[in-house]
Every structure is written in C-alpha cells, then in structure tokens.
Amino acid sequence: MGEIVSGTSTAKSCDADRPVRRPLWRVAVLVIALLLIGEQFPFSYFPMYSSFDPEADYYYVADPTGQPYACVEIFGTSTANVKKMYRARLRELVGQRGAWENDATDAERRAVGAAMLDYLRALGARSGRQVPTDLVVLKRVILQRDDDGTITRRELNIAEG
Fold it and tell me: How many angstroms separate the Cα of 46 from the Cα of each of 32, 36, 52, 80?
C-alpha cells in the first residue's frame, strides 16, 4: 500500500537538492589562476618591500634635554603625522622656488619646523590637552646603513620654540 516516509528520508531528499560545498576546489582554482597570472599588479606586486633604502628618518618633539614627548597625548597627533605634515609644508615652501625637499636650506627647515611647533601647540590646546609652555624641540633622526652593514644614527634639531 502506501509507503511511510520517515523524517530521515525526507531530510536526505532535501540534502540532495542543496549544492555540495567544496571549499578546497575554490582554493585550487584560485591557486592555479594566481600561478597563471604571475607577478602582475595588483596580485602580488609589492614594490615597497622589494628593497630597502640605505637611509631612513623619523621626527619627534622633545623637551630641551632631548626627552621625547608623547605626541598623541600632548598634541593630539602621532609622530608619523608630524613627519608627514612637516615634509608636506617643507615641499610646499621649497617648491615655490622650484627646488626639491632635499635642496631645502637650514633656514627653510627651521622656519617650517617653528611653524610646525606652533601648529602642534595650538592643536593640543584646541583639544583641551595640557601643552608644554616652555621650550620644545622638533628633532629629526637619520638612520643610515653603510656598504659594510654598519648603521649610524644622526640626530638633528630642526627647530626650537
């Protein structure tokens, strides 16, 4: 007569209608595609990691004795942003006379540095932070790797204010 359909047989028939998941199949297709594409941008071309410059620098704000200030807590911005803002302003200044950033004079660097220190103080005060009122120094540290692998560190005072 009639067949009795149990819950399990109904579940099996529903499972048959759903597509089978094969995540490893997708990975295999992706790997093969990337191997065929090769070193083509934007898939695996990372020029920023292909080589390292023999010179790097960073900037920070310090007290007159050279003790660094915590820029985020005091001025409301990071030292990475200090470097970006300083360099952008320096490029703008030297660009007016058709020069490059590396060709900036010490006087131009000092002028931009002093303006940066004023800006940082104003930025910190605007956000309600306790900004130092005494002398602060904008410093640049240059790290250089020589041909023999020796790393040297030079610290320069850009501006005081």
Answer: 20, 18, 12, 22
Domain assignment present for 133: yes
The number of CA neighbours under 13 Å toward the Cβ of 136 is: 22
In a domain, 15, yes or no: no
- Residue 141 contacts residue 155 (beta carbons within 8 Å): yes
Q: What is the CA radius of gyration of the chain?
A: 30
Dihedrals phi, psi of 60, to nearest 5 degrees? -155, 165
Residues 93-149 have pLDDT tens digits of: 999 999 999 999 999 999 999 999 999 999 999 989 999 989 999 999 999 998 898
**Sheet architecture: strand order including 55-62:** 55-62, 137-145, 151-160
What is d(CA 85, CA 56) in angstroms, rounded to the nearest whole number?
A: 17
Does 9 fall in a domain? no
Give dist(CA 62, CA 157) in Å, integer: 10
At 134, which amino acid appears?
Answer: D
pTM assigned to the model: 0.68
E-strand ranges in the chain read: 55-62, 137-145, 151-160
Instruction: Please report whether residue 46 resides in a domain.
Output: no
